[in-house]
Amino acid sequence: MGITFEQVSYRYKERALKQHLALDHIDLSLKTNQFITIVGAPGSGKSTLLQHLNGLLRADHGTIHVLDMVISPSPAKLPKGLNQRIGLVFQYPEQQLFKETIWEDLLYGPLNFDMSKTEAELAAKTAAEFMGLDDLILAKCPYQLSSGQIRKAAIAAVLAAGPEIIVLDEPTASLDASSRLELMTLLHRQCQEQGRTVIVVTHALEEVAPFTDQIIVMDEGTIAFVGKPHELVNRTDLIDKAGLQIPAAYELYAALQKPLRLSKLDHYPSAAELAAVIKAAIS
Amino acid sequence: MPLMYNQDDKHKPPAIQLNNIRFQRGSHTVLKQLSISIPAGQWVAIAGCNGSGKSTLARLINGLLQASSGKIIIHGQPLQQEHIYDVRSQIGYIFASPDDQFIGLTVRDDIAFGLENLCLPREQIEQRIQTYAKLLHLTELLDRHPATLSGGQKQRAALAAVLAMQPSVLILDEATSMLDSHFRDQLLQCLQALHVEQQLTLITISHDIKELSAADRLIMLHDGVILADGKPEDLLIQQQLLKACRLEAPYVLELCKELRLQGIDIGESINEQEVLNKLWALLSSRSPIAIKSAR
């Protein structure tokens, strides 16, 4: 099982005059149980691609295979269980919380996906604990929370429904730096411990590079690159066009590689690792 | 004892002065007896964890919120209900979520809205729309509906609408969080230019080390009090301050720390080039020929 896009195209109706397609005959094949990052310049089709994964947007042409489900262009019906198995966290999390309290929001998904009350409460509680939401926060209305707390609540609400694939559109915007790292670590754990597939759209390569298995670069509705983060480093054309910044770890390694005769990079070097490499090279 | 900022430009009249500001929300004291003086033309960055009172502080300054006690003086004028509109017209405010500030049906209308309210002549409005659209790379998007823009494009449109009103103080409340690093860098450069050329007083609230270090001065808030107030390059290398404000130590600072553990002490810095230069110096003292040929 995986995620496959076959010749998928999509054009926004209100932008019909625009020359390029939001998704332009996309062919993409991804393995599940991975941490996948999608990057690209604004308007390159990242969010559009994500919304095709759970049927929020329907392709004009082409077929999408997600897990064992097939999404065909409308009017074909969406596969049963699609919404439960693929959870989507929007760019603006306040758009997806609508109950009076966070606790009710967390229960909403599981109850609607036919869990019993006890099961739903357990799922909501586990998700809340995982995201570090205490009882005080759970009792509050979404509008009483800070932007960071709302984001965590929205992610918890999606996790509570127990999706196999969790898709997040710019999940770290408006979070403080430590919460960003915490969130990425949590998502990575979801991937490693729970076997879930995590798909993140971001423009902060630095935040995701240590965790990412596969990175996809989108450019004007097409897939411009699929590979490991360190393989992307030399593609300065893509990096510039996608408005990315090369993580400091790669930049420092590249600067030191020649003078210290370091081997070719094959993964993300942690600061401790790079320090050890420098030490070894100069002693 | 908090670190105090040693101002070089003390003789300038303060653009913003906060005296013993306290802000209470229900039983929670968000800001506790805060006093800050910001000289005109200074770029102040404010850091702190989610819920530390950063946005509250910014909203007090433009009168969106009213302090429970204390005094706020903007350009020598106390912030009171009767002249709140005068004050607001001088203070531009960019929200974290750009959707909160769109009014017009197109980007052009949105930029024009504030200018029309300033009763500017039509030609001048059109001229400013063109100038600021160009500055923020929006010229081709002027006739688009804000809802059809991407997050980053929306943020630039919101910024153009505020900048076009040419405020003397500009507050950016996590305004770059939706921008990719390319546009964030461009925006930082643009802010830098406005700050230098037009003596714009800037207050930027951010979690981004790069953005914080671009400012003249950094105020770190924690639990409603000022934890530190000083030059960004001096404060951002202090692990305990970073931790209290939930800022992640930049990779390059981590590397300095790890190198010291390995017995290579090159001091501490958040600047990659500075660290590389120190490493070069260290390396050339050990094997000058190899380094020279490699570089």
Overview of the molecule:
The complex is a heterodimer of chains A (283) and B (295). Chain A has 283 residues and is α/β, with parallel strands linked by helices. Chain A has helices at 46-53, 82-85, 102-112, 117-130, 135-138, 147-160, 177-194, 205-208, 229-232, 236-241, 248-257, 271-282; strands at residues 2-10, 23-31, 35-40, 61-67, 69-71, 86-89, 165-169, 197-201, 214-219, 222-227. In chain A, the strands form 2 sheets. Chain A has a 6-stranded mixed β-sheet with strand order 6-7-8-3-9-10, with helices on both faces. A 4-stranded antiparallel β-sheet of chain A has the order 2-1-4-5, covered by helices on one side. The termini of chain A are far apart. The model of chain A has no long low-confidence stretch (mean pLDDT 89). Chain B is of the alpha/beta class. Chain B folds into 2 domains: 14-248, P-loop containing nucleotide triphosphate hydrolases (Rossmann fold); 253-294, no CATH class. Chain B is 40% helix and 21% strand. Chain B contains 12 helices and 10 strands. In chain B, the strands form 2 sheets. In chain B, strands 6-7-8-3-9-10 form a 6-stranded mixed β-sheet, sandwiched between helices. A 4-stranded antiparallel β-sheet of chain B has the order 2-1-4-5, with helices on one face. Chains A and B meet through helix 6, helix 7, helix 11 and helix 12 of A and helix 5, helix 6, helix 10, helix 11 and helix 12 of B.
Ordered list of secondary-structure elements with their pairings:
The complex is a heterodimer of chains A (283) and B (295).
Chain A: E1 2-10, E2 23-31, E3 35-40, H1 46-53, E4 61-67, E5 69-71, H2 82-85, E6 86-89, H3 102-112, H4 117-130, H5 135-138, H6 147-160, E7 165-169, H7 177-194, E8 197-201, H8 205-208, E9 214-219, E10 222-227, H9 229-232, H10 236-241, H11 248-257, H12 271-282
Parallel strand pairs in A: 3-8, 3-9, 6-7, 7-8
Antiparallel strand pairs in A: 1-2, 1-4, 4-5, 9-10
Helix pairs in contact in A: 3-4, 3-6, 4-6
Chain B: E1 14-25, E2 28-39, E3 43-47, H1 54-61, E4 69-74, E5 77-78, H2 84-90, E6 91-94, H3 107-117, H4 122-135, H5 151-163, E7 169-173, H6 181-197, E8 201-205, H7 209-213, E9 217-222, E10 225-230, H8 232-235, H9 239-244, H10 251-261, H11 272-286, H12 288-294
Parallel strand pairs in B: 3-8, 3-9, 6-7, 7-8
Antiparallel strand pairs in B: 1-2, 1-4, 4-5, 9-10
Helix pairs in contact in B: 3-4, 3-5, 4-5, 11-12
